[in-house]
Amino acid sequence: MSNLARTLSEAREVLVAFGRRALLRRSLWGGAAVASSIVTAGPLGLTQLAVAAEAMALIDPKGDGFRRVVTSNNSKGKSYVLKDEKVKYGEVWRSSADQRLGAGGPTDPNKVLPDTRPATGQPAAETRFYYTAIQPAKGPLNRSNPEGMHRTSTLSYVLIANGELIVVLDEGEVTLKTGDLLVMRNAMHAWHNPTSTPVGMLIAQYLVS
Q1: Prediction pTM value
Q2: Secondary structure (3-state) at 144
């Protein structure tokens, strides 16, 4: 079993066990201060663990697996969806010294593109693991000029903890739902929450620049 698969398995067991107990004491968002900004982030508290537990509970190693969406950058540097498929319990993604972002498409360049400035959500150290929430959008998605488009020089694993969220790329978009895992490979992107409820995400980032 790969280190990533082992980490996800252990995280699932801990979060499901602890988070469900937290659910008995607190409602999903009750008692939690919801910031007015588009993105809020912070350490994992009881509420966040409860939300994450519900997402982890959907990843059943004995079931049909879960949805994995992988982004990439094409030869023109434009971000797009490389993979959108069901994967079973086991290795979810692999990177190496030669392929810091993991394998891209057959014609995609094997290089890390520079982050947008100022850097948004990029770890100062080599790794970062955190919880964040995308607030409901104030208006419809402007596909010709999406708000908040940015790129980080990271390989990021994003687990959707609750709700529904649109990830906007240079070439297309994809809707993620509870329990989906996004492998964000240094791609230009923006988040858009079309619902009335904040959407939580657990994110592990690896600095690759």
Answers
A1: 0.74
A2: coil
